[in-house]
Design a protein that fits this description.
FAD/NAD(P)-binding domain, alpha+beta, 20 strands, 8-stranded mixed beta sheet, 7 helices
Length: 365
């Protein structure tokens, strides 16, 4: 069997970066095409939370466990430029303007009661997602990968119909032995060229505070009742670089065609800020260094798309990981490298995530 060497990857998020890393580690020459910026969307704005066994009982469990282990291995192998750290993880409840009864953590206000420990340093961890994605892509470049700016507008096909590269918006052709679609929710744009299922965008808002060492290596998953009676489910993660990431407000607006046009919903960040400042004295006085919004990719059945595109030789897809994209990026990249170079994914069988399980989307054709 001839092993494809030159692989064009559309998308420089965490999934594209991990695919490029594992392909280049096995002697291939990946070319990553990105129209916006490396880690410019969810891969640079998500929380970066990692969990060993939070997908147990689901089809994603083995992928998640393998990926959790790979995160630790990659941090050690590549000198951990992305702040990989193990965490204590807690669950809690709070209500606006009320004092809670129950266990507490020193960095939280008396409105928060801890309901239990959800994870230990053995089972939960964190990375800073932008530096993880850019760091992994730099490591891939050191192994022979290439990153190019450009917008994919079509595919190159040979006489048999097999995919042999990508056509960019400016007319340039980037040839390859295989093409991987890894554009997050914007992978839906590739349904104009390939029989792929729909990928939808689920929007989230986040804030990044600078707290220094005021908050320990902990994560909090909270149920917070606003004065109106509406319940939010904020997540708060303390990073190794002295910042804290927090999210809570989600929505499902239309996905902009251009990722540069993603912006926060009216009032979303202000609402999240008020919540954060109420639940933690450390956050009450901390400056905000980033106000962010991004779309996570989701599929019709909630499972990722990983594998060869049906009936189109040379075409592959890796997207749709929802909130677990950062966690599952390494094992997805490893699996994609095996599928493209050897025809089989190891050590995790990803056949359950083959795109052919869902009907192709024709809405953009």
């Amino acid at each position: 069997m001839t092993r494809p060497k030159r692989v064009v990857i559309c998308g420089a998020g965490a999934i594209g970066a991990a695919t490029a890393y594992f392909l280049s580690a096995h002697g291939a020459a990946p070319i990553v095409i990105e129209r916006h910026e490396v880690a410019g969307s969810a891969s640079g704005k998500s929380g970066g939370f990692l969990a060993l066994d939070w997908c147990r009982g689901t089809p994603v469990d083995r992928l998640a466990r393998r990926s959790f282990a790979l995160h630790a291995e990659l941090a050690e192998r590549l000198a951990n430029p992305w702040g990989y750290r193990r965490l204590e993880t807690f669950g809690g409840v709070a209500a606006e303007g009320k004092t809670a009864r129950g266990a507490r953590r020193p960095w939280l206000s008396d409105s928060v009661a801890i309901t239990g420990q959800l994870g230990s340093p053995d089972t939960t961890a964190l990375v800073e997602p932008r530096t993880f994605t850019t760091g992994l892509l730099r490591a891939a470049e050191a192994q022979g990968a290439e990153v190019r700016q450009g917008t994919a507008s079509g595919l190159v096909r040979d006489a048999s119909g097999a995919v042999r590269g990508v056509i960019l918006e400016d007319g340039e052709t980037v040839e390859g032995d295989a093409v991987v679609i890894a554009m997050g929710p914007w992978s839906v744009l590739a349904t104009r060229w390939l029989p792929l299922p729909a990928v939808y965008g689920f929007k989230g808002h986040s804030l990044v505070f600078h707290t220094g060492d005021a908050i320990p290596a902990e994560a909090l998953f909270l149920e917070y009742e606003e004065a109106s009676g509406e319940v939010l489910t904020p997540e708060i993660f303390a990073r190794a670089d002295g910042t804290v990431w927090a999210c809570a407000v989600s929505s499902t607006p239309a996905l902009p065609v251009d990722p540069r046009h993603v912006a926060g919903d009216d009032g979303a960040h202000e609402r999240l800020e008020a919540l954060c400042r109420a639940v933690s004295p450390a956050l009450a006085t901390a400056p905000i260094v980033a106000r962010q919004a991004c779309f996570r990719p989701v599929t019709e059945d909630g499972l990722p798309l990983i594998g060869a595109v049906p009936e189109v030789p040379g075409a592959f897809v890796a997207t749709g990981h929802s909130v677990w994209g950062m966690l599952n990026a390494p094992a997805t990249g490893e699996a994609m490298a095996g599928l493209i170079l050897d025809g089989a994914a190891t050590p995790v069988d990803v056949a359950r995530f083959a795109p052919g399980r869902l009907k192709p989307f024709h809405g953009l054709r």
